[in-house]
Amino acid sequence: MSSTDTVFDFTRAERIGLSEAVFCAGKSPQQIAGILESARERDASLLLTRLDAAKYDALPAHLKAQTDWCETSKTAYFGELRPLSLTGKVAIVSAGTSDAPAAREAERTLRHAGVESTFIIDVGVAGLWRLMDRVEDIRRFPIVIAVAGMDAALASVLGGLYGGALICVPTSVGYGAAEEGRTALNAMLASCAPGLLVTNIDNGYGAACAALRLLNTMQLR
Fold first, then answer.
1. What is d(CA 173, CA 196) in angstroms, rounded to the nearest whole number?
2. N or C: which end of the chain has fewer CB within 10 A?
3. Domain 86-217 is in which class?
């Protein structure tokens, strides 16, 4: 085995209830193709994250034919998608349409695990009435993933209005002082709303995995 070979963890789901995903940033198309070939031999379904257009286009045609790629989230499903096993338990609440890449990454990660989420978009607090119009809908869900950039005020406002498990994703959306998501991250971490779970910047995948862990603990899956 060379130093560039990738050893994929096909038994992770048996240990922790979460399948390993293929993080494609930093991997060559050849390395990604090698993982997909291994999955094809095992008849395994995979989730790929951070798969940009250039790497997707460089994959062999027979592998692309088995791949469902999403340009917005830069995620892909390889192989047969598992059937839905749960719906109505997770909402993804996005401050604006610019936050869609991270929000869609969370949505696609959940769907790969058989969980259908509800997507509520463009409820940023710059127009507070938009959030207030949807807050009763949001309260129906035991788990909410809140996705916001700039000042990330959505997390604190939701934290004061919604009593369920709130998983917050800061995004790199914003002008200079937003510092590519660091301001949003710090705002969420420093929130006066207690009990918020905060992921890394743009980490919709991590937020979805946190939601899946909660669902597993609640024995809803």
1. 20
2. N
3. alpha beta
Q: Each residue of 58-97: pLDDT tens digit?
A: 999 999 999 999 999 999 999 888 888 888 899 999 988 9
* SS3 (DSSP) at 86: strand
Cα gap 1→182, rounded to integer Å: 39
94's CB contacts (< 8 A; 6+ apart) are 100, 103, 119, 120, 121, 122, 123, 147, 148
pTM: 0.91
Q: What is the pLDDT of residues 188-213, one digit of tens each?
A: 999 999 999 999 999 999 999 999 99
7/34 Cα distance (integer angstroms): 10
Task: DSSP for 150-200, please give it.
Answer: TT-HHHHHHHHH--SEEEEEE-S-SSGGGGGGHHHHHHHHT-SSTT-EE--
183 vs 179: CA distance, rounded Å: 6
Q: What is the largest CA-CA distance in the chain?
A: 58
Give the CA dihedral 55, 57, 59, 63, nearest 10 degrees: 130
- Rounded Cα distance between 76 and 97, Å, is 21
Count of beta carbons in the 10 Å neighbourhood of residue 113: 23
